[in-house]
Amino acid sequence: METDFLSRILRKKQEEVDAARKRVPEAVLRERAEGRKDRRPFLERLASPGPWGVNVIAEIKRASPSKGPLRPNLDPAALARSYQRGGAAALSVLTDGPHFRGSLDDLKAARSAVGLPVLRKDFMVSTYQIYEAGAWGADAVLLIVRALDDGFLRDALALCRDTGLDALVEVHAEDELDRAVEAGARLIGINNRDLKTFETNLETSLRLARRLGEGRIPVAESGIRDRSDVERLLKGGVRNFLVGETLVRASDPEACLRALVWGRRDDSAPSEPPR
Ligand SMILES: O=P(O)(O)OC[C@@H](O)[C@@H](O)c1c[nH]c2ccccc12
């Protein structure tokens, strides 16, 4: 039972991919993905703590399966600009339609509006989606360990390398973390959300981050509500944070982000630090 929700999504995703293949062949996407010259460094950005010691990957998410719609009339370009002004290190854009009401058009609109690197957040089950991500302008993709077997995880990571995409490899438990590391993942997303109960617990990030070896970069994902959550995770050595709902629901996402990144809402400090 435990992977029920996820396996339902994955089945649907496979159907979606099969249908998409009929419209646009994989070879066309591959050529487009491999021909890109506008890549923005995602992993590299997160590998250094940045000017404030906190990197936030700010997420654009219209709805979630557990909460329903999160922000009426969400405008991905406008929200991306607010995130950039608020000091985001990168963007994450949900492109899953059936459960999150997102699309590749959202990704394209958000990325065109800013200069930040962009993660395609979706349920990747096929090489097709990786080429598709590249073709639509993503700089990185999410790979969920629980959703993939070791063979595909390795293949997907190799394909990302060849295509010039970074990979955020998501785990929720020790065995998944070990599999991610074994497959060669560098950027490890630690999801605080339990997909069985939808509950979040920051302890998951703290616990799994301690297990990471040299050269692996942790990203705490989900359930980060305020600056005190950020500070708690910073004490555990985590400097990268993927934040969705808190920002998407905020009446002023820019100020909300600034408060997460450097503890104050006002803009008396420049949102772009001097370099
Ligand atoms: O909205 P939150 O609790 O800040 O979470 C953001 C992000 O971590 C979450 O959207 C997420 C993490 N892993 C995923 C996999 C698929 C879809 C969504 C997700």
UniProtKB/TrEMBL annotation:
Residues 6-260 form the Indole-3-glycerol phosphate synthase domain. It comes from the Bacteria. It comes from Desulfoglaeba alkanexedens ALDC. It catalyses: 1-(2-carboxyphenylamino)-1-deoxy-D-ribulose 5-phosphate + H(+) = (1S,2R)-1-C-(indol-3-yl)glycerol 3-phosphate + CO2 + H2O. Its EC number is 4.1.1.48. GO terms for biological process: L-tryptophan biosynthetic process. It is an enzyme of class 4 (lyase). This is Indole-3-glycerol phosphate synthase. Belongs to the TrpC family. The gene is trpC. The lineage of its organism: Bacteria, Pseudomonadati, Thermodesulfobacteriota, Syntrophobacteria, Syntrophobacterales. Pathway: Amino-acid biosynthesis; L-tryptophan biosynthesis; L-tryptophan from chorismate: step 4/5. Keywords: Amino-acid biosynthesis, Aromatic amino acid biosynthesis, Decarboxylase, Lyase, Tryptophan biosynthesis. GO terms for molecular function: indole-3-glycerol-phosphate synthase activity; phosphoribosylanthranilate isomerase activity.
